[in-house]
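User: Fold this; tokens only.

Assistant: Input:
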Amino acid sequence: MCTKMSFVHISSRAAGIALGVLLDGVFADPRKGHPVALFGSAAAKLEKRLYGDARSNGVAHVAICVGAATAIGILAEKTSQKTLLTAAATWAVLGGTTLAREGVFMAEKLETRHINQARARLSHLCGRDPEKLDEAGLARATVESLAENTSDAVVAPLFWGAVAGIPGLLAYRAINTLDAMIGHHNPRYERFGWAAAKLDDVANYVPARITGLVTVLVSGNARKALAVLRRDGHRHPSPNAGRCEAAFAGALDLTLGGTNVYGSRVEHRPEMGDGPKPETGDIRRAVRLTRAVSWTAAALAVLATVRRKS
């Protein structure tokens, strides 16, 4: 009788993603010369040439930008240095370490009553108008941004990296960056940014729901987190952000949502959760949850790309 032996083969994709996650943990995002910032600069220059108040112009802009990023990823996949290039791409597109650090910065400034410094830093997390926000408003904005960006900055790129390797990593970050740049509801971008916003919704559909479920699993308050996720996750105007925010609201036993001001635009969002509104002391709890979700998602991405051979 012979017994089949099986072993796990660490693929170049799995090794590259793991190394890239470690690089992000150690180095985070550089202040100057970040690859995503360079992409944004190129996209902005192309916008000047292609801009027109029509969806077709925006579609062309997105197609060129995302197509170029994807093509670079495909070429990188075919090289002999696939592991190292996967690691570099993973590091470039992840933002989990920087996200957590921004949360800690906001907590520190609010704890020491440096409100103006916290207001000045809020733009690193979201686009809300900080000038009219008090300490509680800044705390809520921070917690909600940590929840949503845990998906955008960590879970989603890892998901697409696991599914499609370097092309998936680069294409996702290109899509998400374009949405942040032009996917806005304002006179300039309502039509030109339509394609970027819709494509971002599609790219984040599955990752946002994974983020919600992983949040439930690691929260230590799984029953409440799952209940709020199921009850309130669909109430957010975004098809994706609500899944993340609702899960965080339940996990942290808080109520998120309410009125947000973006320049001249005011949004009245449904509330999610059953607890009190966030306070300064809740920011560090949200940071710990963000880190737990991020590391769990990284482990899942690596496990999903290993191969079992017999």
